[in-house]
Amino acid sequence: MRLHLLCGVFLIGLHSAAIAAHPKVQHSEGKLNTLAPASLQEVAAQELRYRLPSYIVPTHYKLYLETQVHTGNRSYSGSVDIHLDIRQQAKTIYVHQRGLRITSNELYASNPNTNLTFLETLRYTEDPEREFAVFAIRRALAPASYVLHLDFEGELRVDDDGFYLSSYLDANGTRKYVASTQFQAISARAAFPCLDEPALKATVELGIKHHPSYKAVSNMPIFAEAGDLDGNVVTYFETTPRMSIYLLAFLVSDFLYTENEVAAQRVYARPNAINQTLYALEAGVRIMDALDEHIGLPYRSYMPKVDQVALTQFSAGAMENWGLCKYREEVLLFEPGVTTYRAQTTITTIIAHEYVHQWFGNVITNEWWSYLWLNEGFATLYEFLGADMAYPERQYRDLFNVQVVQRVLITDAAESTRPMTFSRGATFNAILSLFDSVAYFKGGSVLQMFRLLLPDAAWRQMLRTYVQGNEFGTVNTDNFVAALTEAFDGVVSLPEGTDVERFVQSWVNQAGYPVLEVRRSYRGEMILSQDRFYGNKIVNNDFTVWVIPYTMMEQGDAQDALLEWQWMTSKAVRVPSSTPNDEWILVNVNQTGFYRVNYDPSNWYMLIRTLLEDTAAIPMHSRAQLIDDSFHLARSNRLDLEIALELLGYVRHEREYPPWEAANRALGYFHGRMRGQPDYILYELFVDTLIGDVFVTLDITTVAPDERLLEKYLRQVISSWACRMEIESCLTATRDALEREVFDADPVHPDVSAVVYCYGLRTAPTVAFQYLFGKLLGSDNRGERQLLINALGCANDTEQLSSYLLAAIGGELQVNFNAEERLSILQSVLSSRQGVDALIEFLTENYTYVVSLLGPNALANLVQSIATNTNTLDEEQMLIALLEQLNSILPASVSASARTTASINLAWPSTREGLLLRYFLERYNFQPVQSGTVLQPDA
Fold it and tell me: Which of the four, 51, 95, 140, 404, has the lowest number of CB atoms within 10 Å?
């Protein structure tokens, strides 16, 4: 599942990493921020209070629902027969329900011939805190099979959770209503009474009554459709396999579909977007075929069909419901000539993510949410591998390290991070908070490390063993360890005294990750040591030990040579080394292991010299790793910042995207600190030097038909920096391309539109801004709308920015933006200081409208973003004035946090990091170069 936060995490900012980040991660991490540490501990301690007793096991649901959603009516009714296996004498039956009204109940005994015997109508009480309906039985039930029949009523929710109401505007501007579901993690109980825990798998038989102008679709194919006397239709579906109840899904709508009958796949969308479904259908078929072959357990051996649905309102971003995957429109629909290469990457990888869940999550499911990484880690890994297998020419797997591994190495370095296997309790927010970067990105990264220890055939056999051995059941770490142990047997040699269980547990049961320190004596040996890596400090008394697999490459080794895995199982060890003293070594080649590596200064400088003189001698992913590791090692005071900056300087010779993306993050951080400082010009010269030789080789406004995907990523990184640094040729080229679209109807290619629109606006006439705003109003493509929103926020004209911000709250234009787009507009102007100033002025006068439309959290987040972009005394005074204006409405903690952030920013130039960066910039005479010369100090 992917969960979405605010205004579209997929629609990447011009200077951020190209992250096809699972939207569920951002949403849940926002939720986590609302949970205080003390309350988290309390919730974890009380988890058992919220769990169902183990003696009640559901085996089957017969669910019937009636809805009049076609009119927009939120009321619905239904009934459910819950077949129960009572495993010990019992006088109470617990059933989950949230916000429903149970109107009647009947308890039956069920014999092996499926005959039912009425027992009694039960008294029950509601426990809203724990979301239980507790049924009391007059005479204790003996262990046996029973059926609890319940009639109930409910209202379609309006928060995109449970069984909820959404809508869209058709081609005539008429509002049409849709009833859809989102049950993960514990919201099936909000749609009908059930036993809502992942381990309680059961089969489901579903019928839905609806208006004949609408159709119902669910996990399984339609079994029958019958007209009712009232003119409505009842759609009955085939019975599902045994599955977790959160995977049940249905949709009642007037949507149309495209279909591949041979593959038994459909893609549903609103009628006025059905022409945008063809790519999702093609990609779905390709990816499913690839996964069938790779895993060796065909999907159709478990389920007869799989459908995909594009929804206008879906907070989860994407969801893997078995046989009925659901997505937000912008991460599924593809419109030729409009959809960008980045959006296509997101669409493809998210389909792969949800499709691999059909095995890892659906056929086998995490036993409890503490093992969520066993679902999401596999899905994160295979969203890149599965997409790559379907479209090998696009090199999707080459995005994994920069989009997943390096990203989570940053977040997992925090003191507050959690282990992969971890529980915060059984309440809605506690469970949702586990859908974070640890479950997704760390889970995928650690599984990648495990995968690369094995030959491909052995890993694939492990997958089959793991799935087949647990199919239609639930799994925990022990099940995974058992399958991996079998795969390792006779293939991977673990160090003495270490088994697979210890190896795996060291990674999944401990918070954080290590830094492997490699210190060469240059006397025939090395000292290897490990410590937990923190992003902001060095801790010398942390005794955490990981079982670390590592590879080592020596200068002159062939890059295609088979590297031997070696192991580190203690805090420190002395290792013999035969590498000549004047040659480098490289550890954790291609960043296969989930940890950072630090070297002694001599080895770092040998690596730097090779990067400058013979860049390709070091593997591409290792080059990206060296940039990323050195930057973060320097920020945590484990490495001299000058070494990291010297190494960063080699990228002027780099022509591959992954290393440039690692450099992009480092450059973005330093830019944020240097902007507004008196010697900012020195930083501009530094960046100009790094990008210069690459920039002159790029045509930044056109796209060749045979261009590689990674070349498109590289062009956007380089051209964004060139325009950001106000290189005249970049600003001129983007302005000219934008004006050709505005005046000559010569459209900008979607793959360069983000840069062209954003920076073309900086120097184009006012009519260009009006043109793009009109294009935004006329578009019903969610992906294009978000791109245009971001681009319009790049304007640097005060009047344009002011009018644009007013449009977010209505103003005189009364534009029909949804709440997500309104917030996105306010955030978009943060891309420049002119925009920040405009936002401050806007909030000063209109904060009450922002709170009423978007809520107090939106205002708090905007204020914190302004503080993050505050670097000078004048800017600090503007922030303080805003905080004083908002004093009556903004929580004191938010104001204090904003002031602290600004103070830290202002103090940065006098910090060790600030002084070292300025010293470095002053010492070197940066000029773009064409050869591999080393940076030279100014004479």
Answer: 140
The alpha-helical segments, DSSP class H, found in 435-499 are 437, 443-452, 456-468, 477-488
Q: For residue 459, what are the contacts with CB-CB under 8 A and spacing of at least 6?
A: 451, 487
- Distance of alpha carbon 210 from alpha carbon 227, whole angstroms: 10
User: Residue 701 in 3-state DSSP?
Assistant: coil
Alpha-carbon distance of 604 to 598, in angstroms, equals 8
Domains of the chain: 47-254 (2.60.40.1730), 255-358 (1.10.390.10), 369-509 (1.10.390.10), 513-612 (2.60.40.1910), 795-927 (1.25.50.20)
Q: What is the C-alpha separation between 263 and 288, in angstroms, rounded?
A: 9
By the 8 A CB rule, do 140 and 91 touch?
A: yes
User: E strands of 18-171, at which residues?
Assistant: 56-67, 75-86, 90-96, 101-110, 116-120, 123-127, 132-141, 144-155, 162-169
The CA distance from 549 to 493, in Å, is 11
**Cβ(725)–Cβ(14) under 8 Å?**
no
Amino acid letter for position 255:
F
Contact 422, 370 (CB under 8 A): yes
* The predicted structure's pLDDT at residue 818: 86
376 appears as a binding residue in the annotation: yes
CB of 588 closer than 8 Å to CB of 551: yes
Picking from 99, 93, 197, 76, the residue whose alpha carbon sits closest to that of residue 149 is 93
- Say which residues have a Cβ less than 8 Å from residue 752's Cβ, sequence separation at least 6: 700, 701, 702, 703, 715, 716, 719, 737
Task: Give me the pLDDT at residue 19, please.
Answer: 42
Q: Is the dihedral of CA 888, 889, 895, 898 positive or negative?
A: negative
Determine the average pLDDT of the residues in 575-598.
Answer: 96
Average pLDDT, the chain: 92
CB 380 within 8 A of CB 22: yes
C-alpha 307/C-alpha 220 separation (Å) is: 9
Distances from the Cα of 808 to the Cα of 477, 741, 826, angstroms: 48, 25, 7
User: Sign of the C-alpha dihedral, residues 742, 744, 747, 752?
Assistant: negative
For the segment 171-190, the average pLDDT, to the nearest whole number, is 95
pLDDT confidence tier of residue 926, bands split at 50, 70 and 90? low
- Look up residue 564 and give its DSSP letter: P
- Let me know the angle formed at the C-alpha of 741 by 740 and 746, rounded to the nearest 5 degrees: 80
Q: Strands 324-328, 306-311: parallel, antiparallel or unpaired by DSSP?
A: parallel
- In the predicted model, is pLDDT for residue 173 greater than 70? yes
For range 826-836, the mean pLDDT: 94
Element (DSSP H or E) covering residue 324 = strand 324-328
Q: 40 burial class (0-12, 13-18, 19+ CB within 10 angstroms)? A: middle
pLDDT value of residue 927: 62
Taking Cα atoms as reference points, which of 515, 337, 321, 318 lies closest to residue 435?
Answer: 318
Residue spans of alpha helices (H) in 46-143: none
Q: Report whether 599 contacts 634 (CB < 8 A).
A: no
What are the catalytic residues? 354
Q: Which two tokens stand for residue 448?
A: 């990648």
Instruction: Give the C-alpha separation, 50 to 47, whole Å.
Output: 6
Secondary structure (3-state) at 218: strand
